[in-house]
Specification:
binds FE2/S2 (inorganic) cluster, homodimer, DNA-binding, 2 strands, mainly alpha, Arc Repressor Mutant, subunit A, elongated, 7 helices
DNA sequence: TTTATTTCGGATATTTTTATCCTATTTATA
DNA sequence: TATAAATAGGATAAAAATATCCGAAATAAA
């Protein structure tokens, strides 16, 4: 469904969110340990999220990755997915036609669009804040 | 969402279905032309579908790929997807945890499972027959 | 039985994704 | 200002997905 990069990106963002809530910045090393991902690769993904302004980074000593605590509820999964995998997964054609077009639908268009729209709706309406809350309260987990 | 291989596999199966309906076998060459895919790669995917008994092949002169006309309505998209991409897309964890486990859910589990189940339901309840019918009647298309 | 046709399957090549490594740059503090 | 700590980013490497090529095996028809 999502690329590895995107999975790491989502989990990393959640971990950053939790820490930002407590005013702490985190490093790729801490993140990779917490989400069970390759550190250097994770760092690259974080860079991409910074470029797309999903998260923020502070260089130098006492630096690290953070998100604005007040923006947590406005940062949606869709922003993370779009920054890393693009929006093809929730906007593109399920069978890889150049674009999904009502006037030139692929064989699964009518069936697929509902699934895709539900995915889109889910991604656009799920905030980093709620995901972070569930981790903090031990309801969900970032690694096996 | 689906791999290229899977997209080709689905489209190829539909084209084979249409022809089988008229008692005709088709070659990888005809298929690749019709679905706009690389021929040799498509042939490999067809082999996989044959191994998984989703479609049937006949070697030698006047051979080709076919499906049993009477089974068309019982062949579901899920069989094709499972044969090529495996069932991770509609059974696995959205964030790549080893398995999707209600008792050890990832952050998106509650939100994701509905989407995934709708996808699963769609794949398991969409037959090759109905997809082929829509192509035959010009309602949908196999290529851009 | 020979020939033409067609799928099968192994080997290889290319591209994309995933992953690692090393140096440059930035920045807080001593 | 010097130092240590941290992200940025380029260069590579490894693995997986995508794609191509060719000979072997099977089969129908001449
Ligand atoms: S055209 Fe394929 S999903 Fe809409
Ligand atoms: S545990 Fe991740 S989707 Fe269920």
């Amino acid at each position: 469904m999502f690329s590895k990069a995107c999975e790491y990106g989502i989990k990393a963002s959640i971990f950053i969110a939790i820490n930002s809530y407590e005013g702490k910045r985190v490093s790729p090393k801490e993140i990779a340990k917490e989400i069970n991902s390759p550190q250097a690769f994770t760092a690259k993904i974080l860079q991409a999220l910074v470029r797309h302004k999903v998260i923020n980074s502070v260089k130098g000593a006492y630096g690290g990755f953070e998100v604005n605590k007040n923006e947590l509820k406005y940062i949606k999964l869709s922003q993370i997915v779009k920054a890393i995998d693009g929006d093809n997964i929730y906007n593109g054609c399920g069978l890889g036609l150049e674009k999904c077009d009502e006037n030139h639908p692929c064989p699964v268009h009518e069936k697929f669009k509902d699934v895709r729209n539900e995915l889109k709706h889910m991604l656009e309406n799920t905030s980093l804040e709620e995901l972070a809350m569930d981790i903090k309260s031990g309801i969900s987990f970032l690694k096996a």
